[in-house]
Amino acid sequence: MEIHEYEKLWLAGALLLIVGFIATVAYGAVGAGVAMVDDENGTVDPDALDEHPKFSDPGVYESEDGGYDVYVVARQYMFQPGTQQPIEVPANSTVTFHVTSADVIHGFEVVGTNANTMAIPGEVATITVEVGGPQEYGLLCHEYCGSGHHGMEGTVRVVPRSQFNATGVSA
Amino acid sequence: MATYVDRYPDEAGVVKATFAVAFAALGVGALFGLVQALHRTGYLRVIDSTDYYTVLTGHGVLLALVFTIFFLLGLFTWAITRSLERPLPNIKLTWAWFGLTTTGAVFAAVAIVAGLFPSLDMSADVLYTFYAPLQAHPLFYVGLAMFIIGTWIAGVDWFLAYREWRADNPDERIPLQAFMVLTTTLMWYLSTLGVAVSVVVFLIPWSLGFIDTVNPLLTRTLFWYFGHPVVYFWLMPAYMMWYTVLPKLAGGRLFSDPLARVVFVLFLLLSTPVGIHHQYLDPGIAEGFKFIAMTNTMFLLLPSLLTAFTVVASMEHGARQRGGEGYLSWLGALPWRDPAFTGMALAGIMFAAGGFSGMINAGMNINYLVHNTLWVPGHFHLTVGTAVALTMMAGSYWLVPQLTGRRLYSRPIALFQVVLWFVGMVFMSNAMHRAGLLGIPRRTAEPQYQSFDFSATVGSVSELRIQMAVGATLLFVSVVLFLFNVLLSAIEDPIEMPVDDSLPAPLSGADGSPVVLDNLRLWTAIAVVLVVLAYSLPLASIVTDGGLFGESGAFPVFVDAVYRVAGVVA
After folding, report:
1. How does pLDDT run across B162-179, given as a tens digit for each residue?
2. What phi and psi, each to the nearest 5 degrees, are found at residue B381?
């Protein structure tokens, strides 16, 4: 097959770029430790969240390894916790959000950060983030979830450790 | 030599009809886009925020599905007849698929627009990505199903024409345009299976009340199984015009026929096993499957990068034929006063920018930052909104005279129109990309929140809003000019001399490429294997975890539905 010389160079360059991109993502996963939201966290019955050990009382739990687990239920059109009372986590800690939905598909985005996931009924999304100094963040639903979608917002507040009270201890 | 309409009057009629539907959808969809952009930016509010999503659904469905795919149906009908040099085998079949797709599109559009009239008790504000458990009126899903089946029959029509041609020409290479039509059609068959299963097996029975629940993740995954490849169904008509029409308009000829075939084969192979890259942030899908979709997506950059080379090289060749010289000064020798050429060239430039923002989306980890923000519509307003839509509008300026035998109403207005689209989209997509980086979400009627503000490091949020509103207004004016120009062209005087619709042979012809490139069976088989590899395990895992019909329902509900139907009958 006849391929022009410049075309060959371009082809090689394009392949190099592609392999380079894949390498950076692979490095992000293995080297820098950017974990993806995945299927490790099992499923829940969206109609029976009140029987779930944690989603029945969503909130911030201290975990045994010194980090914090935040259980959040998204529903039309609020986050529990987050909307009626802010999600409060202590400064300079490792926080794992466990997010699910009680009705339709929602989004969960801590504005201005890469703490971002989908909330799908029946599935539990888990993201672990490193939290810095005290600051207040906006929380919003970024997946259209019905005619009141634009009002679905909340607050994540990073507070000094001295002011922090957890809901309980994670199992 | 006669013009297309003289050689194939019946086919020209069908192509004109599909273009008429496409352009009607373009007009309404653009109006919805303007209403929506002015509402969202707060400059002019003529609807309630709750109706915003109905308008948004109309904008997405009418432009991304109806406009693009009806244009494709017409363009491919034109391309298959002119490149195989024979009429379609059965024009009744052709009108049948036109009737079915049009009726389906009208049903879906009615279900959407009815949402603006509360007394009608019908709505479909589920957006272009109609994920369950948000529910639309059954008419919406039935319309979608009819539309898809109509496109399948169109594909059969084109393959029948090919079969007749092959019987008469057993040893010839498939003409390039026909090759593009056939590979794209195969890709469409493969990728629409997912959405057809989702709509027919789950969403229609569920919206009619025969089943109580669906598995949201399953229907969402089936949607994206179709939802990404459909992007290439928008793009392929634009690519076909860039490969076969643009070089001629530039004054030269296509650089390489074999590489054009390689590009279309790569699209056939790689378009479908990538949909999970829309679900990087979905729970319930393992990281490994996401990684597979990511690598496939990255390799899918290859055909587009090759196209970038070929398009630029063909333009340069054309410019040099016209006397252009130097490293870059040949650019001045291109026919910039020709609206068809200029529109396509500007579309190509915007596609390069859109390709780069797409590479960011495809990066599995960087995606966390931009997922579901305004960055994403910024990206596809460059790809489908400009690369595709602008190429289709520019291409129409060249095609419509061939289809009608009449001259274009105004070339200067046409030239102004394509440039206006480019400028409008520069404002709109630039602002959307930047807003996305600040975390401003897509698809929301009120992007201001009570308990926090978005902060811009460069410029300000209000400046971004102005840009979006200005961009949307320019784009709407551009569409109005386009429709006005095409409409008036239909009542122009007939042209005495036949339109020059010939396409020159490529510099490197098909003879230089291996025959295996034309082996459509082989490529289809490999494409199927890739899809099975990418999707069988994730789908099995989703069904195992969440049930075929959702967590609380599963099969017993289906039995209930049978009883209910039996009750109605008895």
Report:
1. 999 999 999 999 999 999
2. -75, -20
What's the pLDDT tens digit per position in B137-162?
999 999 999 999 999 999 999 999 99
Name the closest residue on chain A to residue B541, using Cα atoms. A39
CA A51 to centroid of chain Cα atoms: 23
Closest CA to B22 of B80, B72, B93: B72
Give ∠ CA B270-B274-B279 in degrees, rounded to 5.
175
- Structure token pair of residue A73: 């239920």
Cα separation of B256 and B506, whole Å?
Answer: 6
User: How far apart are the C-alpha atoms of B272 and B186, rounded to whole Å?
Assistant: 11
Rounded Cα distance between B99 and B180, Å, is: 24
Give the span between the Cα atoms of B198 and B202, in whole angstroms.
5
Q: How far is A11 from chain B (nearest CA, A)?
A: 7
Return the number of other C-beta atoms located less than 10 Å from residue B270's C-beta.
Answer: 23
Cis status of the peptide bond prior to A81, with omega within 30 of 0: yes
| Phi and psi at residue B507, to the nearest 5° | -60, -50
Q: Which of B173, B452, B515, B557 to mutate to test the interface with A (most CBs of A within 10 A)?
A: B452
CA–CA separation, A52 and A36 (whole Å): 24
Question: Can you tell me the distance from the alpha carbon of B317 to that of B340, in angstroms, rounded to the nearest whole number?
Answer: 18
Contact yes or no for A110/A89 (Cβ under 8 A): no
Rounded to the nearest angstrom, the minimum Cα separation between B192 and chain A is 23
Q: Is A14 on the interface with B (CB under 8 A)?
A: yes
C-alpha distances in Å from residue B196, one per residue of B186, B188, B225, B523, B559? 15, 12, 11, 22, 23
Nearest Cα to B127, choosing from B8, B43, B223? B223
pLDDT tens figures, B210-239: 998 899 999 999 999 999 999 999 999 999
Q: What is the DSSP letter of A35?
A: P
Tokens for B282?
Answer: 């979905």
Quick check: A43 and B371 CB within 8 A? no
Distance, CA of B218 to CA of B195 (rounded, Å): 11
- Contact status, residue B341 vs residue B252, Cβ threshold 8 Å: no
